[in-house]
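Retro notes (design track)

What went well: tokenization of the new backbones is finally stable.
What didn't: we kept losing track of which sequence belonged to which structure.
Fix going forward: every design gets posted as structure first, then sequence, in one message. First example under the new rule, 158 residues:
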């Protein structure tokens, strides 16, 4: 979760740099991207993060039951698509052949929405159901509590 929040913070920092501070896109690189500009342009790094997120969502999935599992599955499903988009970007970066004749690697949805805004959106729609899933996991109903394999739920009545 620390990595997810840090990644989310990087995208928010980039958006603040662009829209609140008026920085040009090439200079708005988030916090870590300022001293390490290659982080923003590295399709390998972005793909790696998308893959780690996907693997993490898959590995943690068995710990969720009932309503929390439904929300976790929503997050996982969205991340499957997000991972596919990053795989597409990585393949384009490796081959030098870009989607729709663009000048740089381009994802499918990026044909409609600029990359900065798209990644803010993706992060939000993957993160929000994760938060709901974790909240519901900590507050299970009696049927969900009976199926849980952990002791992290808040005690009933709290």
């Amino acid at each position: 979760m620390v990595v997810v929040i840090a990644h989310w913070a990087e995208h928010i920092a980039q958006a603040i740099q662009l829209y609140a501070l008026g920085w040009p896109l090439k200079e708005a690189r988030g916090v870590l991207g300022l001293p390490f500009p290659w982080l923003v342009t590295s399709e390998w790094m972005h793909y790696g993060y998308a893959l780690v997120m996907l693997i993490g969502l898959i590995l943690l999935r068995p710990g969720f039951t009932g309503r929390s599992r439904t929300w976790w599955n929503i997050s996982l499903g969205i991340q499957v698509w997000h991972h596919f988009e990053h795989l597409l970007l990585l393949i384009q970066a490796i081959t030098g052949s870009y989607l729709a004749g663009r000048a740089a690697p381009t994802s499918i949805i990026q044909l409609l929405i600029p990359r900065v805004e798209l990644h803010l959106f993706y992060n939000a729609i993957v993160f929000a159901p994760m938060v709901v899933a974790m909240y519901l996991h900590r507050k299970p109903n009696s049927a969900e509590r009976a199926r849980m394999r952990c002791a992290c739920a808040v005690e009933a009545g709290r």
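Added context from the reviewer: Helices lie at 2-20, 38-41, 43-60, 66-95, 115-138, 142-147.
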